[in-house]
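Appendix C reproduces, verbatim, an entry submitted by the partner laboratory led by Prof. M.T., so that reviewers can inspect both the input and the predicted structure.
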Amino acid sequence: MAPGTGPHPATRNPSTIRHHLWLTRIPLFLQFGRTEVIDNTLNPDFVRKFILDYFFEEKQNLRFDLYDVDSKSPDLSKHDFLGQAFCTLGEIVGSSGSRLEKPLTGIPGKKCGTLILSAEELGNCRDVTTMQFCANKLDKKDFFGKSDPFMVFYRSNEDGTFTICHKTEVVKNTLNPMWQAFSIPVRALCNGDYDRTIKVEVYDWDRDGSHDFIGEFTTSYRELARGQSQFNVYEVVNPKKKMKKKKYVNSGTVSHVIFLWDLLLMDSNPSQSTSLHYMNPYQLNAYAMALKAVGEIIQDYDSDKMFPALGFGAKIPPDGHVSHEFPLNGNPDNPSCSGIEGILEAYHKSLKTVQLYGPTNFAPVVNHVARYATAEQDGSQYFVLLIITDGVISDMAQTKEAIVSAAKLPMSIIIVGVGQAEFDAMVELDGDDIRISSRGKIAERDIVQFVPFRDYIDRTGNHVLSMARLAKDVLAEIPDQFISYMKGRGIKPNPAPPPYTPTGHTLQTQI
C-alpha cells in the first residue's frame, strides 16, 4: 500500500516543514511503520510502501498520523502533530482504482489537508534487480552553477495513474551525473509485469524544496532488461519547452549503464554443492530425480521415445545471449533426445556449456509446445509438457495468458517445484481451486498440475520410494485432462479391433 498526501494549509514557513507519516493499526494503536522524512514541502509524496496482508472477511482498521519533524528524536511528543486519518484497509481496496482520499483531522477548528491512500495487490515476482544510470548534457538550471540532478521513478497503476517507487541521490553541480547503483524489487517497479510503463522524471534539486523539472522519459522493465546498449539511451524531454521551442530536441539524455539479476545465487554455479543443479557423482540432483520419476512412467505412452528437451533462463554460447527455450542437446533443428536417459545426458552436458542466468520465463516453453499441439487437434496426439523449476517466475502475466490459450489444445502441463523456495506462483497456475484466467478470459479447462518435490522426499533416504510417490501424484490428473479434451471436441475412441482369429490348420488333440 502506498500512502501519499495532497495539499494542506499550514501556518509555518514552508522552508521549515519536514513531513513524516506514521501508520498505526487500531484498536491497539500498535505502530506498524513510518515513511521517510520529506523536507520543505506542503505536498509530500512518500516513497516508502507498507506491505499488509489483506483479508476480505475481516475489518482491518488503520490510523495514519502526520507530523512535522523538528529533530531526529523518535519520540512523537518532540514533533508537531499535523493531523490524522482513519479508515479500513477494505475502504482503500474497495474504492475506485483502489485510491482513497481522507481529510486529515485532529486539530480543533483547523483544516489539516488531505491524505491520499492507494493500494495494489502485489505480484508473485520475487526478483530483485540492480541498476545504475548516468546522464549527459542535462539542462543548466542553477544561475550560479550547473544543476544538482536527481531522478524519480514511478510505477504505472492499472487506472492510468503513477505511484512513486524510487528516488536517486542528488549529484551536485554537474550536467553529466553518474548516479549510484541501486537495488529494487522488480514488483516495486512494475508489479512483475515486464511491459508495464515506468516513468522517470529528472529534477534539479533546490534547498527550499522547489525542485526544477528538467524532463522525463518512459520505459519498461523489459526494455531495461536489455542492459547497457544503444536501446537503453533515453531522451529527457520537457513537454512545455517542446511546445514553446520549434527547434527543441531534448533536455539531455539518460543511459542505463548496469543491469544485474539477483536471482537464487545458490543455483548460479552447478559445480558447487549448494546448487540445486549440483552434479553429485553418487546421487541424482533434485532436477534429475524429478525428471526420472515422471519421465520413466509417461514415456511408456510415447511410440518413438523421442522427447524434445528445452532449457530456459540461461546464457547460450557462443554469443552469450539469454534464451528461454534452448535445446538441451545443443541442436536447434532437432531438440529431441532418445528416452529419459538421453534427456539426462543432454541436461548434464548443457550444464557444462551454458551459464545459468535470468529471468525465468515460462511463457516461451508453453507457447513452444502449444505450436505443436495446434497442428494436431484431431485427437491423434496429446502433448504433455513437464516443467521442473525452483519456483522463481518472472513472466507471470504472460504465462497465465499462454496457459489460458493452451487450455483449448490437446496438451497438459506438469510442474515440479524443487528446492526450498516459496511456490505461491506455481500454486496459482495450478487451477484446482480457482480456474486460471487472463485478460478476463477463464481457461477452458484445468491443464496444470503442480507438486513440490520436497513433500515427497522420504525421511529414510529411500529415493526410489520418493520418486514413486511423486510420479503417482503428479500424473494423477493427466487421464482426466486427456478425456476432458476429447469429450469437449467430440472425439471418440477408434473402434476396437476385431478379435484375433488364428490362420492355417488347426491341430486337434484328444486325450
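Confidence is low (pLDDT under 50) at residues 1-16, 261-268, 504-511. Additional entries are available on request from the coordinating office.
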